[in-house]
Amino acid sequence: MIAIKHVSQVFAVGKGERHVALSDISLDLRDGEFISILGPSGCGKSTLLYIVGGFVKQTSGSVEIDGRPVTGPGPDRGPVFQEFALYPWKTVLGNVAYGLRQQGVARAPAEARARELLAMVGLSGYENFYAKQLSGGMKQRVAIARTLAYNPAVLLMDEPFGALDAHTRNRLQNDLLKIWERDRKSVLFVTHSVEEAVYLSDRVVVLTKSPGRIKEIVDIDLPRPRVRAELLLNPRYQQYVIDIEAMIDNQPEQEEAA
Ligand SMILES: Nc1ncnc2c1ncn2[C@@H]1O[C@H](COP(=O)(O)OP(=O)(O)OP(=O)(O)O)[C@@H](O)[C@H]1O
C-alpha cells in the first residue's frame, strides 16, 4: 500500500549547517496493517509521518502509495497530528462534517455521517459543543472522527494519545482497535510508549538515535482481537516490551551521515 524507499531527510539549520533527521529509511506498510514507530526523542518519527503525509518533501528517496509517488497531501492519507487543532469557531459536529462538506457532500448527509462517527468515538450528545468546552481526550476523539469522516485508506497518527491521562489513553486505544478491526485501515502510528505500540501493532519499527535509521522491525505475534487484561498477563507480550525497551535504550552515539 505504502512503500517508503531509501528516504533521507536533511534540514538546513542556521548558517550553512545541516541536520540529518532521517537516513535511508525503507519500509512497506501493507494494506490493513498497523505499524507503530518508536525511537528516542528527536530521531525523526514525526518527520517520517510528515513525509508520508506529503507535508514535508524528503531530501532523497521516494514514497509511493499503490505505486504512485507522493507529491503532497491527499485524501487517501488521514493525518491525526497534534498541530492540526480543531476549528474553534465550529461545533464538534461542524468540525467532523467539514471535510465532507469540502468534498461537496450536502449538509444533511454530511451531518448524518458526522453523527455516526461521533457515536463511534463515544461523543453522542456533544455535537453542539465547541472545542474549548471539551477535555483533551474528547478533542482527540473529535480529531479522529474528523479524519475518519473522509475515509482515508491510511491513518497517520502522531502520538495521538500522548497528552492524555492513563485511563483515557487506555479507552482511546481500545476504541481505535475496535475501529481498526472493523474498517481494517492501514495505520502508521508514532508513539513513545512501548506498551502502547506492542498492544496495538502488527509490527513495531524501532528507529536509532538521531539521525534516525531503522534499527529493528519486530513482528508482534499476539492474538487478535486483543484484550488488554489478557495481554498484560501474557509472557510473550511482556517479553516484547522488555526487548523493545532494550532496543531503544541501548544505542551507541552515531555519526551524522545521510
Ligand atoms: N523544519 C525543521 N527544520 C530543522 N530541523 C527540523 C525540522 N523539523 C524537525 N527537525 C529536526 O529533525 C529531528 C527530528 O525531529 P522529529 O520531530 O521528527 O523527531 P521525533 O522523533 O518525532 O521527536 P520526539 O520523539 O521528541 O517527538 C530533530 O532534531 C528536529 O530538531
Q: Short summary of the structure?
A:
This is NitT/TauT family transport system ATP-binding protein. Keywords: ATP-binding, Cell membrane, Membrane, Nucleotide-binding, Transport. With 258 residues, the chain is α/β, with parallel strands linked by helices.
The strand order across the widest sheet is: 6-7-8-3-9-10
Order of helices and strands: EEEHEEEHHHEHEHEEHH
Question: Beta-sheet strand percentage?
Answer: 15-25%
Number of domains: 2
Overall SS class: alpha/beta
User: How far is the N terminus from the C terminus?
Assistant: 26 Å
What average pLDDT do the residues reach? 92
Global Rg: 19 Å
CATH topology of the largest domain: Rossmann fold
Write the SSE topology:
Elements: E1 2-13, E2 17-29, E3 34-38, H1 45-53, E4 60-65, E5 68-69, E6 77-80, H2 92-102, H3 107-120, H4 136-149, E7 154-158, H5 166-183, E8 186-190, H6 194-200, E9 203-207, E10 214-219, H7 228-232, H8 235-249
Parallel strand pairs: 3-8, 3-9, 6-7, 7-8
Antiparallel strand pairs: 1-2, 1-4, 4-5, 9-10
Helix pairs in contact: 2-3, 2-4, 3-4, 6-8
The structure holds adenosine-5'-triphosphate (ATP).
Give your account of this protein's structure.
Helices cover 36% and strands 24% of the residues. It is of the alpha/beta class and 258 residues long. It has two domains: 1-76 and 154-214 and 244-258, P-loop containing nucleotide triphosphate hydrolases (Rossmann fold); 79-151, no CATH class. Helix 2 (92-102) crosses helix 3. It is globular, with a radius of gyration of 19 Å. The relative contact order is 0.18. It binds adenosine-5'-triphosphate. Adenosine-5'-triphosphate (ATP) binds at residues 11, 13, 19, 21, 39, 41-47, 210. Belongs to the ABC transporter superfamily.
